[in-house]
Amino acid sequence: MTSHTAPIADSSLATSAQRSAAERVVVVGSGIAGLTAALTLARAGKPVTLVTKGIGGLQLSQGTIDVLGSRDGNYVPFAFDAFDGLPDSHPYRLIGKDAVLSGVETFARELGEGYFEGQAGVNALYPTAVGALRPTALVPASMAAGRAEVGRRMVIVGVRELKDYHPELIAGNLARTALPEGDPMDVRAASISLPAREGEVDSNPVMYARSMDRPEFRARFIAEVKKVIQPGEVVGVPAVLGLNDPTVHAEVEKGLGAEVFEIVSQPPCVPGMRMNQHLTVRLKELGVRIVLGAEVVGLQAHEGRVTGVDVRTAGRVRTLAAEAVIHCGGGFESGALAVDSHNRVSETLFDLPITATDATELIHGDYWGAPQPLFEVGVRVDEAMRILDAEGHPVYPNLFAAGGILAGAIRWHEKSGEGIALGSAHKAARTICEGDLS
Amino acid sequence: MKKLSVDVVVIGGGATGAGVVRDVAMRGYSVAILDKADLGQGTTGRYHGLLHSGGRYVVSDPHSATECAEENEVVRRIQAHAVEDTGGLFVVTPDDDLDYSNGFAAAAAAAQVPCEELTIREALRREPRLNPGIKRAFAVRDASVDGWQLVWGAANDAKRHGAHILTYHRVTGMEVVDGSVRQVTAIDEKRGEEVQIDCNFVLNCAGPWAGQIAGMAGCEEVEVVPGRGIMIAMNHRLVNSVVNRCIYPADGDILVPVHTVSIIGTTDVKATDPDQLAIPRDEVQQMLDAGEALVPGFREARAVHAWSGARPLFKDPKVSASDTRHMTRGMKILEHDTRDGVNGILSIIGGKLTTYRLMAEHMVDIMEEKLGNQNECKTAEEIIPGNEDRKTYAVTHRLEEREHDRFEDQIICECELMSRGMITQLMTEQPTASFDDLRRQLRLGMGPCQGGFCSMRATGIAVEEQMVDVERSTELMRLFLKNRWIGLWPILNGDQVRQTALDNWIFHGTFDIEHLPQSEEEAL
After folding, report:
1. Rounded to two decimals, what is the model's pTM?
2. Looking at this predicted complex, what is its ipTM?
């Protein structure tokens, strides 16, 4: 543990401009946690500024809402039932089932009726781009038909111009994977060739999805896929069924006369981009101020409270006044946590106290062995999601954290990223809305 | 059981063995080369990629320096495509005193190693990232060389002359009849098959494993001590010329630009087992400090991968005063007939990649003398096929190729600009190859993402092209990820932590590889 030595100026000289703007809540980061926290606050009538260095992590995601899918490599059928068995250091022990349910509900509601299928507490298995069966709670409607069920007949259709999607690999592995209830499904592979743009052999999925937004292109797509599928087969395709036009999936199903599902491969994740786009529009409608391309570099505090956030933007550092701050900056993948060449671990925005500061013993050499402890490192919080110091006291009463920055879970391993993000974002936003900032 | 009969068996597929098999084949013998793993997977593939100008040895070992200078020119001529003509600098950093440099130019001249002193200004013009506090700088003809291309080039040339290239053939024994080696037995690891090779001569080029091999023929006390050294690849060409510290040879004194990276090396620590080479954290720190002395800010650059190699160091309790024929220092050729009373076997231990061809020539000369033959060695004159244009490698070559084929082919590895055509062609030529075997020849997974994006593609393509079935392909992916990690975790810091988190999100989060069906045995 470090003592808190953040580059925080005690700004007893807060300007009148800062004081007058001090009603705003500053949310740092625009991944699923940041977007949801900002939406929750804005819906409750709070003025919100969302500050973000880049576009958030949803576009790098797998496009589903995970809550808790796996423990020690074993599938978890009912996520909430497994909460009690989690170690005390796990974020769910503080977030709790109710906050996860509320967070997921908020998120799903913002995306609209029928956007997702599934329940927060119940996991189902869906095929991945290497043909594994992956547990998750909610999936967009465009993925729902991929749900693994005994007796299902699937055809995995590839597009030769998309190099991140190999139908023989997916189908081959699915066909040799027994379902928890019994035999493997009946799965085969097929391919089509249809360039997103004339003469293009190496297409980006985003470019492909944009082409699918065009009715004439998707008519050709439907015609090509129709040639390789058989009646009664559920059709798995790359996750490129439109970027902006939400009707593409339904139209492809109709055109093929078959159930169709998307399989997400490595980034960029088109379903995640759709969500990101959708939620960003909502935020703007609600009057949230979004500051893009702004790196958060420090905090301002006065009389034991955070009063502002320093951001580096357009070649200078300026301070955004804040009534409260929620740190949704993510984990190591986003750069909010880092290890330097002397193996020192740190939180890079505010130099906050974190659960470990020496990476040396936190990384081991067995790739297939136990999960790497380094990736459990993060900030500790209380039940209200206030960031705590080494002694367990809030660093500031109005400084909160949500999402990937929270210590205690390796999300990719246990399939819990969205549940932790949504639950903690909900809790932090609720605390602020209830005015409990002391 | 597979049976084969050849004149000569070469054991060990590193640079030395590849040079030897080429030479033997070109002198008209039938020959097979065996390695327990892939070509260039041992010491040859685990070094910093320097083709010595000789500058490193002008003071400590002028004879080796002269040989390096000569062979440097030979390799450039016969294997231009494996060589990048980077040039090299010897610099005195602010941490070093000037004593060594005072004798450097004169020693270079005496050893016939081309060398020219540069002004500090000129040295910094050539390498702007160099420590601006350097006190002196000398330019030499160092180059960087791709060890795998060098080895495969020589081996494929040998193949054209009729040689059998038997990778993943682990030698299990040797039969000695009436005091002469007559047969080598091996296991074909990929097919699980025993192989018997009748022969008249064995050339033991097994490097750090040479003692184990010699022991199989009953040659005792060939004690080879692995001298372990670590190297770290940094994710940029921090320098475009080889940069040497102008001091008496020491740890961490060379920075070599190779392909898209630059490699800092190396340490020298006695190891016990050449199959178990650690990458200790204190040595990583030592290398980063050494880099910092040459290029300020080195620690802030991104370390992408580290590895550990074993120099074979020979301790011969039987060495005799008359043993003077070994023309290259730091290298020994053991004549087991006089030494151990076993005919038909020679062992070579030590040496340098730069002089691999010359070492081979010496060894094959001795073999011919024993056999009473005298064929001409042509390895220095004959250009290895494919290199006739004599164009040395440039880091932009692949970009040029991709610009030509971008409308016909997909880029499978963006970091290293490797196309689908390149990988499918090699998969066809070497259908039993693991992804690491493909990597060594294509640089698959060697860029900043360390296989994060390309290894899943390679897995899919291997199934699509029917190179392997889905089970083996999946196991090859598992093995590849495991092996990449060996060189990642000891240097995990900075942006490579961020990359690892992203890669883990992809493989464990999105793909859920943990829940893929798993075979009982690991793929080979």
Report:
1. 0.94
2. 0.94
